[in-house]
Amino acid sequence: MLILGEVLTAALRHSGGMPRDRVEDALGLLAGERVRTFERPISYAVSPKTYTGVDCRIVARSGAKVRGVGTLMGRACLTGGRVLQSSAVTRIEPVAGGFRQPWSHYLARLGMVEALGRPDLPGTADAHLLADRSSSMMGMGALCVRLLTGIQGSPVLDRKPPVRARRTVLRWAATIKDGAEDVKWHFAVREDGLRTVRLELGPAQIDDIVNLCEDLALHDWLLTALMSIIEQSQIGVEQPAQSVVKLRPAVDHLLHLWMPAARLDGFALSVWEGLESRPGLSRQWDASVRRVRDQMAMAAALVNNRPPERKQLFG
Amino acid sequence: MRDGTGFSESTADTRVEKTPLSHLSVELGHFYAPDLELDEHFFIEHFRRIGVWFAAARSAAENANLRAPRISTCVLIDDYFGLPEPPVALIPKLVAAARKAGLEIDYLVRESGCANNVAGVARNPAEPETGPPGLSLAELVEARLVEDPPPNTTAARPPVSHTGWLCNGQRSPATETHEAMKRPTAWRPPAENAAVNHSIFADIELWREEADGRLWSCAMLAAVWQLLRLGLLRDNGRSVAVPHPPPPDLPDNWSALPMVLRINDRAAPFNAYRAMTVCAPLFLPIENAVRTILQQVAVDPAVLGQVSDRAKGEGISLPLEVVDRIEYLFVDTGPVRGADPG
Predict the structure, then answer these.
(1) Does residue A310 lie in a domain region?
(2) Do A32 and B135 make contact, defined as CB atoms within 8 angstroms?
(3) How far is B23 from chain A (nearest CA, A)?
(4) Is residue A209, in this structure, part of any structural domain at all?
(5) DSSP per position, B194-212
(6) Per its UniProt record, what InterPro entries does this chain match (chain A) (predicted)?
(7) Which of A33, A154, B2, B329 fits as disulfide partner to A26, beta carbons 3.0 to 4.6 Å?
(8) Are A103 and B194 in contact (CB under 8 A)?
(9) DSSP codes of every residue in B196-262
């Protein structure tokens, strides 16, 4: 079984905190369905699932194409009231025969795209992960952008992002093999900024895989955002007091959000354990946080131990 | 972990309420204002003709290895497009006519309940009913429409702007052009997405905006009605339009009544695994429109799963697709005027 997904991560365009009812307004993508919210161990809200119909080509790396008909699941989540993510996910299911069924057939199998014919599933996973950032499989990227911009335009937001950080895209492909005992994964950061995750694992819930990939995308974005803020603060070039002003948004809005695998368990934990040994996301995060705090401490020390001013010397 | 050791947050809940379920819900009539004015004889004749088929539906259920099938009956009163005579006169007339024809009306339902928010009806606070802040059942269903995509549609296509129309394929492009210097495009036929050889293209009006707000179409309200009968609608996980007994003194005003009235105390549950509608062939176009809509409604998978689990527990096999749970008998029910034109 092959599951494909894409996650778009950005800072919520809102300057302050968000009370729960406002979060529910912003993430209420489907009338009559609840936005689920969690307060422990970190505040987290997730929209209801929405579905979009497709009838399009599914391309394999070799260039072979089959027709795919079905629905993509789309949802959005907000972590710590600051980081907004949208996801597009679908399962590719090969079916014999080349007929398209009445649409009710596909709505009884939500979140699945039936590949009419004989799709090359490993080749499809490759094509999904290797495609340009702008040309994603089945319009997944466009769906993520539409969900995210829809929420960012919500009237309950003041459109003032507290941190300036670029959106990141993480594209993932998970192959489920009945016999597989442990989980294999590969996380890559590409030159064009696209992140890719390839997973191979035993039977698992699709929701758990989506949660894992969103968690990876969240922490990768946090790290990217923090690194970018540190870079812009020009430590060692600017006066410490100047650098500290530029570092402040990170302290105010980002540093407390680092909590890998906060709501994950099972195979997802083992993927995180692997990621911590290499590339060691938390090590890099800790080092960066220390750097920010050292700058703060130094700036404070310089203010306190300021040499007496001239007026006092000659006064 | 909900019952044992562990940690849970109620705001993270995804549970959906259960509603009692019959095996079969049989619709004995969908009456529009012009017919509702007619006298008792019209209704006796209507129910007498329907009664034959109701008996057939009952024996079909018994043949399906159900020892004691739970079957409930219902009639739908149009108080949305027209204004029928007051409940105090109409309800006793319908109930008496059905009894004279050997039928029992278990539930009487107000069609406007599908279109309007049911707020305002006196509710039992212990019995959670729908209280969508400003949302009607029709709006809840509209939110769940997932349009049938024509070939070569990716998720990049934004949802079709809400025009109030829903189709099962690709429309014929407009052939007239008023732009100067632009040649009119050649006519092309419409196409059904899942056509078998040839297309049967359907384009359904869901609603239109009128001076005093949105007017839902009969087809859209009937689609809501079928989903309601099948027990597949929820509002934020809570059940909607829970049946209530009529008040001891029937009011003069339909809007003062709950949407679903339980007329018969001993009735089997209103919601059912399957729904059967017995009606005049005149209604076939409407029911085709209803099916076109229902084929594009993505019912909450949690609700679908709950209903199919319960069916499995009773040893009943239930079609996976919602439209396949609805059956029709198009029979001569006597002279019917149906909905007024327009």
Answers:
(1) no
(2) yes
(3) 21
(4) no
(5) T-BSB----EEE-EEEETT
(6) SCO2521-like (IPR049749)
(7) A154
(8) yes
(9) BSB----EEE-EEEETTEEEE-HHHHHHHHHHHHTT--EETTEE-S--BPPPSS--S-GGGS-SEEE
A34, A39, A105 member nearest B236 (Cβ): A34
Q: What is the pTM of this model?
A: 0.91
Give pLDDT tens digits along chain A (315 positions). Answer: 999 999 999 999 999 888 888 999 999 999 999 999 999 999 999 999 999 999 999 999 998 999 999 999 999 999 999 999 999 999 999 998 778 999 999 999 999 999 998 889 999 999 999 998 888 999 999 999 999 999 999 999 999 998 989 999 999 999 999 988 889 999 999 888 899 999 999 999 999 999 999 999 999 999 999 999 999 988 888 888 888 889 999 988 999 999 999 989 889 999 999 988 888 899 999 999 999 999 888 888 888 776 655 555 554
Q: Which residues of B touch A104 (CB under 8 A)?
A: 294-296, 321-324
Which amino acid appears at position A197 of this protein? V
Preceding amide of B158 cis, omega within 30: no
Report the gap between the CA of B159 and the closest CA in chain A (Å): 8
ipTM: 0.90
Q: Which domain holds residue A8?
A: 2-204
Q: Is residue B208 part of a domain?
A: no
How many domains are there within chain B?
1
Domain range enclosing B237: 18-134+217-288+296-330
Query: How far is B278 from A207, CA to CA, in rounded Å?
Result: 42
Interface check for A8 against chain B (CB to CB < 8 A): the answer is: no
Does residue B205 fall inside a structural domain?
A: no
The answer as to whether B180 is a domain residue is no
Q: Contact A86/A147 with Cβ under 8 angstroms?
A: yes
A31 near B CB under 8 A = yes
Residue-wise DSSP of A202-214: SS--HHHHHHHHH
Reported in sequence order, the residue ranges of B9-129 that DSSP labels E, i.e. its strands, are 22-31, 71-77, 107-110
Structural domain includes residue A116? yes
Query: Quick one: tokens of A8?
Result: 């778009």
- Structurally, chain A folds into a number of domains equal to 2
Identify the sign of the CA torsion B3, B238, A74, B294: positive
